[in-house]
């Protein structure tokens, strides 16, 4: 299912941006962190906030509501409270900071943070075999989620 | 707090906030558990060296209906497994023509401390032994029967029956036996080791985020005093090693084998983390 979804996302990206889709994609190990920011887009393709909202809520993708509550998505059930609420998150963090946190929160906060790295291969032991070398989100999904979060102003 | 004042306006908001308030203040409930008149210790002073001051039963983290189901043995679906275990106890199996009862007689007497004191040290195997493995050892050596396959319904039922004989007794494993202390250390390592693509350790949820919510799941201390447990989620009994494996799977890691060194060490360590809590087998959980 994940593969199909990812495949579909790639197909859409290709359809919209036939040249830019993969050419400029930054590999997880090559993402440059600078003072809690990742300033360069992972794909060069602007994020789509509507797609970002979907990846954000989807339990097989970001599943962000497992830990973060967000009023804007109150129609979705069961928001967690392990992590801060994301209402007005764009007032507190720039898109470059949000990108860094999503890519690998452990490089922004501390190794102790519970937040998984969504575009990082710096992961736990014994990763499920079919997920070895894979990230939780694709580069474009990260850009989409960043674009969605950037709309959350109060 | 903000949520409460915002909600005061409309009835709809009040309704919604009823949930939000419970979620926002996700502490364990202030309630006491009696099962058929027997008081359970659901809060106990933590043993020395424990990260918490107080150890808390998972019962305190569950919703009112779930808690009520456990209070009444006639309502608790886990008691069906205990009853089935009682039948197995009396049933002859294997080449030697014996049942558990042939040697151990009345389980209420012979098994009364087992649920509170396992895992123990198995000097023959030179590793810890839990109730499931002790049952297997007995079957092979004393009954001439096959060991159970992991999570065979009979294994779960008989384990639940045996542990249920200790209902109410406080967990008190003896780490001075054999090399149990070394296994405790190993189990502690496992507890704090992050696994899987999501990079979580046991401690990420059950220590650092204890009392909070992941989705609709109220994170408890991850105590083991109620296993095997009846879970509404799957409408069936869940063994401890099944639960360990499920948690590890949810970190998107490969699951260790049931009763592997890794999970036996974890059982030793996590049982110690619940020292002083009553055996609640079969507990009722979400």
Q: Features of this protein?
A:
heterodimer; A: 154 residues; mainly alpha; Cytochrome Bc1 Complex, Chain D, domain 2; 6 helices; B: mainly alpha; two-stranded antiparallel sheet; 43% helix; disordered N terminus
Q: What is the topological layout?
A:
The complex is a heterodimer of chains A (154) and B (286).
Chain A: H1 2-16, H2 20-23, H3 49-57, H4 89-92, H5 95-108, H6 139-149
Chain B: H1 2-7, H2 11-24, E1 34-35, E2 38-39, E3 43-45, E4 54-56, H3 64-71, H4 78-90, H5 100-104, H6 107-110, H7 114-117, E5 120-122, E6 127-129, H8 131-143, H9 153-164, H10 180-192, H11 202-208, E7 213-214, E8 217-218, E9 229-231, E10 236-238, H12 240-250, H13 261-273, E11 284-285
Parallel strand pairs in B: 9-11
Antiparallel strand pairs in B: 1-2, 3-4, 5-6, 7-8, 9-10
Biggest sheet, spatial arrangement of strands of chain B: 10-9-11
- Domains of chain A, number: 1
**First-to-last CA distance of chain A:** 35 Å
Major interchain interface with per-chain residue totals: A-B, 24 and 28 residues
CATH homolog superfamily of the largest domain in chain B: Cytochrome c-like domain
Alpha carbon gyration radius of chain A: 15 Å
Would you tell me which CATH topology of the largest domain in chain B applies? Cytochrome Bc1 Complex, Chain D, domain 2
CATH architecture of the largest domain in chain B: Orthogonal Bundle
Major sheet summary line of chain B: 3 strands, mixed
Low-confidence stretches of chain A: 9-21
Description:
The complex is a heterodimer of chains A (154) and B (286). By secondary structure, chain A is mainly alpha-helical. In chain A, 37% of the residues lie in helices and 0% in strands. Chain A is built from 6 helices and no strands. In chain A, α3 (49-57) packs across α6 (139-149) and α5 (95-108) packs across α6 (139-149). In chain B, 43% of the residues lie in helices and 10% in strands. Chain B contains 13 helices and 11 strands. In chain B, a hairpin with a 2-residue loop joins β7 (213-214) and β8 (217-218). Chains A and B meet through loops of A and α11 and β7 of B.
């Amino acid at each position: 299912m994940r593969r199909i979804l990812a495949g579909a996302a790639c197909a859409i990206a290709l359809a919209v941006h036939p040249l830019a889709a993969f050419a400029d994609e930054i590999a997880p190990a090559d993402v440059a962190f600078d003072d809690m920011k990742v300033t360069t887009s992972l794909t060069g393709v602007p994020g789509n906030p509507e797609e970002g909202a979907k990846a954000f809520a989807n339990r097989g993708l970001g599943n962000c509501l497992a830990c973060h509550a967000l009023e804007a998505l109150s129609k979705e059930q069961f928001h967690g409270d392990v992590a801060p609420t994301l209402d007005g998150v764009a007032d507190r963090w720039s898109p470059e900071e949000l990108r860094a946190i999503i890519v690998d929160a452990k490089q922004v906060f501390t190794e102790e943070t519970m937040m998984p790295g969504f575009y990082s291969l710096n992961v736990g032991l014994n990763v499920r075999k079919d997920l070895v070398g894979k990230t939780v989100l694709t580069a474009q999904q990260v850009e989409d989620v960043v674009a969605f979060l950037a709309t959350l102003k109060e | 707090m903000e949520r409460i004042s915002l909600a005061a306006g409309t009835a709809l908001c009040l309704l919604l906030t009823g949930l939000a308030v419970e979620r926002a203040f996700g502490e364990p409930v202030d309630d006491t558990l009696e099962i058929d008149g027997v008081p359970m210790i659901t809060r106990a002073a933590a043993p020395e060296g424990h990260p918490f001051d107080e150890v808390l039963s998972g019962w305190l983290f569950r919703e009112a209906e779930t808690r009520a189901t456990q209070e009444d043995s006639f309502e608790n679906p886990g008691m069906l497994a205990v009853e089935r275990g009682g039948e197995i106890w009396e049933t002859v199996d294997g080449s030697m023509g014996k049942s558990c009862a042939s040697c151990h007689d009345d389980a209420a007497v012979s098994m009364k401390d087992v649920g509170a004191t396992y895992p123990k040290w198995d000097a023959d195997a030179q590793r810890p032994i839990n109730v499931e493995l002790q049952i297997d050892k007995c079957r092979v050596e004393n009954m001439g029967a096959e060991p159970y396959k992991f999570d065979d319904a009979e294994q779960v039922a008989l384990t639940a029956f045996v542990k249920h004989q200790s209902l109410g007794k406080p967990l008190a494993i003896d780490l001075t036996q054999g090399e149990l202390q070394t296994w405790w250390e190993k189990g502690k390592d496992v507890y704090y080791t992050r696994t899987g693509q999501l990079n979580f350790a046991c401690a990420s949820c059950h220590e650092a985020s204890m009392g909070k919510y992941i989705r609709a799941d109220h994170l408890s201390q991850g105590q083991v005093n109620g296993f095997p447990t009846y879970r509404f989620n799957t409408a069936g009994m869940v063994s401890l090693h099944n639960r360990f494996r499920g948690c590890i799977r949810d970190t998107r890691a490969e699951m260790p084998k049931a009763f592997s060194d890794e999970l036996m060490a974890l059982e030793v360590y996590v049982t110690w983390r619940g020292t002083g809590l009553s055996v609640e087998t079969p507990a009722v959980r979400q």
